[in-house]
Amino acid sequence: MSNHFGKVIVAFGLFSLLHSSFSAAQYRSNLRLMHQNFFLLPCDIIAQTLLSLFLTLWGVTIIAGDFKRIKSIESYQNKTSDELLNRSSFYVFSHRGRSFFQE
């Protein structure tokens, strides 16, 4: 399937999701006007929300194209344990130990 077809499906799914959210908000405001308690959304709003969610997800997978397998063993096979356990984001250079080594 083409990328254009996926974009159309995503656009339709997002529009349908937006419509279902407005329907839910309108239903809640109507209940407030009639002074009734809210328990659950009607089944048609729930069904439209779920259908539009799955339609949007399907369109996104069409846009993404073919999925590729993740083979992490190949990238980690030739590395040593020092390279694997190196966490450079945890390096802290502005700490109080610096004051002990100033001349």
TrEMBL record:
The chain crosses the membrane at residues 39-64. Component of the ER membrane protein complex (EMC). It is a multi-pass membrane protein. It is found in: Endoplasmic reticulum membrane; Golgi apparatus membrane; Early endosome membrane. One of its GO terms (molecular function) is inorganic cation transmembrane transporter activity. GO terms for cellular component: early endosome membrane; EMC complex; Golgi membrane; plasma membrane. Keywords: Endoplasmic reticulum, Endosome, Golgi apparatus, Magnesium, Membrane, Transmembrane, Transmembrane helix, Transport. It comes from Parasteatoda tepidariorum (Common house spider). This is Membrane magnesium transporter. InterPro entries: MMgT (IPR018937). Pfam families: MMgT. Part of the endoplasmic reticulum membrane protein complex (EMC) that enables the energy-independent insertion into endoplasmic reticulum membranes of newly synthesized membrane proteins. May be involved in Mg(2+) transport. Belongs to the membrane magnesium transporter (TC 1.A.67) family. It comes from the Eukaryota. The keyword Transmembrane applies.
